[in-house]
Amino acid sequence: QIMFEAPDEMLCFRFNRCPGQHNLLVAGCLSGQVVLFDSTVAMHKLSQKATASGSQGAAKAAALRKQQSVMGAAKPSLEIQPEEGDPTEMEPVLPVAVSLADLSHRRLVSDLAWLPWDGHVDARGQVLAPEHLVEGRAHQFMTTSGDGQCLIWDIRFAAIAAGEMPHILKVRGAGDKKKGEQPPPPWLPLFKMQLKKPNAGGELAACRLVPLGLTLPGSGSGSSSSSGGGEGGGGGEGAQSGEGSTPPPPGGGDGLSLSPDGLLTKFLVASEAGELAYADWCPPPAQDDGGAKKKDGDGDGQGGDGQGGDGGDAPEYIRWVSADHPRPCAGLAQSPFFPGLALSVGDFHFNLWVLDREVPVLVSPLSPTYLTCGAWSPTRPGVLYVGRRDGCVDIWDLTDSSYKPSMTVAVSSTRVTSLEFFLEPPEKRGKRAELMAAGDAVGNLHVFELPRSLWRAAPQERSAMEALLGREVRKVDYVTEVAAAVVPPPPPPAVDEVAAGGDEDEDGSGLDPEQAAWAREEKEYDALEASFIAQLELEPADLPELWQEQQRRKEVEAKANEEAEEDQ
What we know:
Helix content: 10-25%
Number of helices: 7
Distance between the termini: 90 Å
Largest sheet: 4 strands, antiparallel
Strand content: 15-25%
Number of strands: 26
Radius of gyration: 32 Å
Strand order of the largest sheet: 1-2-3-4
Shape: globular
């Protein structure tokens, strides 16, 4: 095994899933910093060690069998004892780069995710032109924290600080610096966003993050990530199985097939208060008046402030915020087959969201135990997996049943914390095409081989799932329209208004009909209450404190009204 060592405790990490970059790993720390690892050398040593130990072990096992057969051993032992001096553990891998603590997150890094290669941005948050992108190579990732910030980082920070990438950031005085005279540049965020709620204006303390451009067809590398760690489930080559091989058509009235180009700068954020926010780090120009402080992208080092900064004129990145779960979201994932569909897991149920609706389109029944993570199946459009606190995983086939899981599998004796999927490439697929890895609360890793029924899509499964979601969307729209059409009842009149109206006219004349009706009902209730107290011969001390407080308040209001009339 390989061990990675960071300056502080690591709370989340992600491998780069682009081909040829699987050796890159980024992690978020308790101090708010991010670290970058390169496992190339460690993987090479590990493969060499495995090859050498395998050949030596085979030779020693053959020699031991021959020796024990000569000695007439009844049951030869094949255990190979390591030689003295052989290392039993490899040296830990140290970070290649560590971000500057003063300009990192102010709280612990709660989640991070790599950006797709075609969604890279410059220091102002604008998507780079196609000529500046390298197909299939990802160099930027996004982090979020409870401090309300979302930061975009670039692992090529040294080249950017040296002025070698002016299309990302133009550095003043970069050409005057001589090589060898300057210390290594600090690793700073390329672009900053301060997430604020549109109406309330308060900061949004984020705990989960999903860039919506990650799981579109063709953006993955053959493996899928769960929402237990925050990154949306990957599609990649898993979408090439069954009906998932055809990309969804753009448009659509139900919001299930949004244009992939329109999602490159969009992302979902779950807050610590149980809210779900739909945001865009590149808002329309009409919403960004006066927000861009550096229109030409000039800077002293790296992007740092970008458009957002911490000023009051920062653009509004969040499009809408809605209540999701009573407690913080435990898992957030985007569907690999429907770009406009997302799964959120928290508390005792999970929700399905369509991006252009501010309410969930499907809410699951309550689970018997707390839910801890969730993930979409990378090969079946209607199947999702939900981890539980009791160590089980619920497998939901929404095309078969939406009110109970199709299967429940016991994985561990402790809480399931994360779910990951690995897919064999199409040319290498045989009987074992999909593996599921589950991590638990005590650090154990459980790997399962999924049966054919769970990774092979049924005929017309995608069409059935789309029809189901369309019905649910129409139900939500109908309920929303009915709720908007219902006129709420008018509020009751104030107590002083009722009393004043009663003193002026016993029949309630001089008041509008609604207030007169309230006044008559109030008098009838008071008369009935007085009759009830008299029949039971109750003293004021025998009555509840709430009634006594109401009587004292009425006496004070009546006295105030009398004094007001005397003054007039």
